[in-house]
Amino acid sequence: MNHFEKIYSEHYRSMYYVAVKIVGNRSEVKDIVQEVFISFFEKLQNGNEFQNSKGWLYRTTCNKSIDFLRGQKRFGYAESLKDFKNEDKSSEEQEVATIINLALSKLKPKEKMLAVLYSEGLSYKELSDATGIKFSSVGKLLSRSLKKLGEELKNQGYELY
Amino acid sequence: MSCINEDLIQKYIDGETTEEEATLIEKHLAVCGKCTAKVRHQQRLATFIKREINLLAPKTVEIPVVVPLPDRSRKRMFPLKKLVYIVAAACILLFILFITGKKELKNRNDVLFSQYYNWSNYNANHTISQQPIVINFYDGKGSVRKYIIE
Question: How far apart are CA A124 and CA A134, in angstroms?
């Protein structure tokens, strides 16, 4: 198995999770992840060397997902409940997912990226590499993002823990 | 140590503090009920948010099969190499034509000649028409034949 295929099989699922958490469960998630891996493949073909493939993939996935959302807003597509529908889930799970997605959509892009990547279990060093936030500022921004998210969920009548 | 701020609490609950920081925090928590409650609240919030965000992830993800792409680098190189060979061949051909063309000119059988009076052997007792004439014949190879007509 060559280098690209190894990275692809190891990280596809993680990138998919990140994209779906940022973008919501839309059909474009597969396209976004595919674009990320195509970019990675092309860079490998051009002789680029990656010191941290995982960090690059996370960063590119987040950026492409955020860019997608910006594009949606630019063309006036309002985020509504139907954007977050997931046919794989039961109606109760769907309701919960919708509330969480709406709360996430209220965060700024960097805050959203941080919260999503935090849920993926990344360390502060990995969070810093993926988001471009200074390592010393990760704790501060993370605590604010989580606090803001908690307040958004509360405002939507969601019971916290 | 004064009460801990939220940023440091976050670092602590995520295990990102240094040993020294962790020791100081634990010493403070042992004596500060307010900070202990803050840490507990923030820990529960972080765990809750992580869990809820992870509910967004689908249960299964189908990983598309990788289809190897054709090696584009070879395709890019081939036309350029071919172009270089063609240009080089054209230059060599032009060079050969140029050289052989010059030789052809040299091989022409044109003969040139010149004539003049041989002023070095001028005889003052004779008229000009009686003076010897020197005729030089130049052939295509560049050699000269000299004739003196007296």
Answer: 10
ipTM: 0.85
Low-confidence residues in chain A, pLDDT < 70: 1, 25, 74-89, 161
Q: In this structure, what are the phi and psi dihedrals at residue B102, rounded to the nearest 5 degrees? A: -65, -40
Residue B1 distance to chain A (closest CA, Å): 19
Rounded Cα distance between B92 and A106, Å, is 70
A57/chain B closest Cα distance in angstroms: 16
CA distance A51 to chain B (A): 23
Q: Which residue from B minimizes the CA distance to A104?
A: B53
Q: Helix H segments across A24-108?
A: 28-45, 53-74, 91-105
Which residue is closest to B66 within chain A, CA to CA?
A5
Length of chain B as a residue count:
150
- The pLDDT tens digits for B86-144 are 889 899 989 888 887 655 555 556 667 777 776 777 777 878 777 788 888 777 677 77
Of A8, A88, A161, the CB nearest to B59: A88
Choose the closest CB to B72 out of A45, A96, A142.
Answer: A45
A113 Cβ partners below 8 Å, 6+ apart?
A22, A62, A66, A130, A131
Distance separating alpha carbons of residues B99 and B88, to the nearest angstrom: 17
